[in-house]
Design brief:
With about 325 residues, the chain is of the alpha/beta class. Helix content is about 35%, strand content about 20%. It has one domain: Arginase, Chain A, CATH 3.40.800. Strand 9, helix 10 and strand 10 form a beta-alpha-beta unit. The longest helix has 17 residues.
Length: about 325
């Protein structure tokens, strides 16, 4: 597999409580770490893939460092308690981007995701910048060419930029063009977008592409009714769901470790009210967490927040 490397076993370490009880397990004790890229033996499992890439963030004039995200998030996950579902995790290694070669890295991620999906695995990808979404999302779309796939983005940004080259700001426009090339619908919903963080040009692009957008203020509404209704629509209208989570959707006080911290943001407790129904729908096919940048973390706070989100998704992810 091009640009692929196995995960260092040293990342999966933690406290050993096995003397207390055979059930006192943590993720580092239940995750399977592969030395070769071979999805076929892991039918029905969740492939954990890293996308060690900063190239899209750099092109988007952001703060580099997200290429270190997969390693940092694995370390944060390793010592968390292993409960129902966590033994399905199979660490399938990382795709590493080479300098100034974003497109090659996205293609390599696409190929890895496609191979895992064809082996009837789910995919959980740790980015990397939000350029991760084009490689991951196109792999999912290509794995299910005859199906109606929803793209659900939890994000402060719409990431529908027009640009001469791909970046962390273009993945959903790229996915829209990918869908057009296949003559299939582009079913994109963005929850948490900030009006202050997206230009009028981006809102116009979203309107022209019939994107459903629920702004951060709608998610913060105590009634939550608009969000619940739209979640029900997404689940009912689609065969499969690809969920992508830009961690800058969280408030800066909860998630300082991103390229563009949110002044307002949507707290983790509210995001979980969106994530949980998707996990329990039986239609969730793929998830990624992107934009985590360890350079700007404070005492591991952001890593723990992101890891808890990933932990909850795996715990509740129904086949």
């Amino acid at each position: 597999m091009k640009l692929w490397q196995p995960t260092s076993a040293d990342l999966w370490q933690g406290r050993d409580d096995s003397a207390e009880s055979p059930e006192a397990k943590r993720l580092f004790q239940t995750v399977v770490v592969t030395r070769d890229f071979a999805p076929e033996p892991h039918h029905g499992k969740i492939a954990l893939l890293g996308f060690a890439c900063d190239e899209g963030v750099k092109r988007n004039k952001g703060r580099p460092g997200a290429e270190l995200g997969p390693e940092a998030l694995r370390k944060a996950l390793a010592n968390m308690a292993s409960h129902h579902g966590h033994d399905r995790l199979v660490d399938m290694g990382n795709v590493h981007a080479e300098p100034e070669k974003l497109e090659e890295a996205q293609q390599a991620l696409h190929d890895a995701v496609l191979a895992c999906q064809r082996a009837q695995m789910k995919t959980l990808v740790l980015g990397g910048g939000h350029e991760t979404a084009f490689g991951h999302g196109s792999g999912v779309l290509d794995a299910f060419p005859g199906e109606n796939v929803a793209i659900v983005n939890l994000d402060a940004h719409l990431d529908l930029r027009h640009a001469a080259v791909a970046s962390s700001g273009t993945p959903f426009r790229q996915l829209a063009l990918h869908c057009e090339s296949q003559k299939r619908g582009f079913n994109y919903t963005c929850y948490g977008a900030s009006r202050a963080a997206n230009t009028q040009a981006l809102w116009q692009e979203a309107h022209e592409r019939n994107v459903t957008v629920l702004e951060d203020l709608a998610l913060l509404d105590p009634s939550f009714s608009e969000v619940q209704q739209d979640l029900a629509r997404v689940i009912a209208e689609h065969d499969r769901i690809y969920l992508t989570i830009d961690l800058d959707v969280l408030p800066a006080c909860e998630m300082p470790a991103v390229s563009a911290p949110a002044a307002l943001g949507v707290p983790l407790a509210i995001l979980l009210r969106i994530v949980m129904p998707l996990c329990q729908s039986g239609k969730l096919q793929a998830v990624d967490l992107v934009e985590f940048n360890p350079h700007y973390d404070r005492d591991g706070q952001g890593a723990r927040t992101a890891a808890r989100l990933a932990w909850q998704i795996v715990h509740c992810w129904q086949a």
